[in-house]
Structure formats: C-alpha cells, structure tokens
Amino acid sequence: MREVDNASFYNSMRWRKVRKYFLKRNPICRICEYEGKIKSATVVDHIRPITMGGKEFDIKNLQSLCESHHNAKSAREGHERRKVKTYKRTR
Ligand SMILES: [Zn+2]
To answer: Do 90 and 10 meet the contact criterion of CB atoms below 8 Å apart?
Structure first.
C-alpha cells in the first residue's frame, strides 16, 4: 500500500532534516498568513502531493501549515482522490 511508502518517506532522515530546516525558515502557517492571522506552523506540506508526482525535496513544492490547515488540505485531497491516502503527520 502507498501509505506505507509515505510513512517511510516521512520517517527518513533526509526528510526530517528538510522539514526542520524549512520550518525554521518558514515558521508561520502560510494559509493563516493569507488570512491575516499569525499562527505557527507545525507541518511542512507538499503543495503538490508526492502521490501526485510532486517533488519531495523541492523547496518550491513545500509550504508550512498549521495543523488544522494541513488537516483540511489532506481531507480535501483524500476526498478528491480516494485511492491516494494522504500523508501522515510527522512529529
Ligand atoms: Zn493555518
């Protein structure tokens, strides 16, 4: 199953490093920022999901999101493409 692949990706050393680095540089949820709110991001999200061909380590494909916005996005993507299980949260 795909989600297994995803889980191993999100647990990989390389991703953890990229994620940490990215959150440090982009500590505010991007969507909250658009809405004029300041909320710290906890999730680094792939703008174009990996399961849809998005690049895993391309900084341009990443965005910082707070947990609720990330969940909302994941739910939407999961709804649109049922077979694709969206990524698990990493902590
Ligand atoms: Zn947010």
So the answer is: yes
**Residue 69 φ/ψ, nearest 5 degrees:** -70, -35
Q: What is the secondary structure of 13-72 as a DSSP string?
A: HHHHHHHHHHHHH--B-HHHHHTT---B--EEEESS-GGGT--SS-GGGEEEE-HHHHHH
Residue 90 covered by a domain = no
Distance between CA 67 and CA 82 in Å, rounded? 21
- Mean pLDDT over 20-41 rounds to 97
Question: Is there a domain that residue 30 lies in?
Answer: yes
CA–centroid distance, residue 50 to ligand 1 (Å): 21
Neighbours of ion ligand 1 (CB under 5 A): 29, 31-32, 66, 69
The pTM is what? Answer: 0.76
Domain residue limits at 13: 7-83
